[in-house]
């Protein structure tokens, strides 16, 4: 079992879904393609972590719907008590920023503007996801609570990234001094 497998099991604890629906639901949290998801679903079904059924559709091909089994829930609960690994950062943008000392100002501004656009798109994306979550009954234990706090995390990350891009642009324009832009963080 890999981390993506556990994520798919987790999504299936919420509701029965097709492989395509699972791919869409996991995207805000984990980048995965059809070619990764379908073999995992098949393996988990063979391992009796999932059950499936076919749904006939008149205007489209039939689709296979997956649901988590008791064995799948047990496997997921075992995973939930294991230590969480450190987050992985793998962003080409960061590597390019390391090279800005040799780049022309125009190159730096271009990649900053591209990233600003990306962050603005992510903000719209997470705001749209957030608008679909019913907020009137959110609490720990509610099936939408995890979605809400993760969407909020994504939104806050995108907003902070956009703010960082604006700060760097101000540095380039000479409108900000080189200093630590954020207050120090202490553990509570």
From TrEMBL:
It holds the Pfam family PadR. The keyword Repressor does not apply. Residues 89-173 form the Transcription regulator PadR C-terminal domain. Residues 8-76 form the Transcription regulator PadR N-terminal domain. This is DNA-binding PadR family transcriptional regulator. GO terms for molecular function: DNA binding. The keyword ATP-binding does not apply. InterPro entries: Tscrpt_reg_PadR_C, Tscrpt_reg_PadR_N, WH-like_DNA-bd_sf, WH_DNA-bd_sf. Keywords: DNA-binding.
């Amino acid at each position: 079992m890999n981390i993506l497998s556990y994520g798919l099991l987790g999504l299936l604890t919420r509701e029965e879904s097709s492989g395509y629906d699972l791919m869409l639901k996991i995207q805000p949290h984990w980048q995965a393609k059809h070619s990764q998801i379908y073999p995992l679903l098949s393996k988990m079904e063979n391992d009796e972590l999932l059950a499936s059924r076919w749904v006939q559709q008149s205007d489209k091909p039939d689709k296979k719907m997956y649901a988590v089994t008791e064995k799948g829930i047990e496997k997921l609960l075992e995973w939930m008590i294991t230590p969480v690994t450190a987050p992985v950062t793998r962003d080409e943008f960061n590597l390019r920023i390391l090279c800005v000392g040799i780049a022309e100002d125009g190159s730096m501004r271009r990649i900053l503007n591209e990233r600003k656009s990306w962050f603005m798109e992510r903000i719209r994306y997470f705001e749209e996801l957030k608008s679909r979550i019913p907020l009137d009954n959110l609490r720990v234990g509610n099936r939408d609570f995890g979605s809400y706090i993760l969407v909020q995390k994504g939104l806050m990350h995108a907003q902070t990234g956009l703010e960082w891009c604006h700060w760097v642009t101000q540095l380039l324009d000479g409108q900000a001094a080189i200093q630590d832009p954020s207050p120090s963080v202490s553990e509570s």
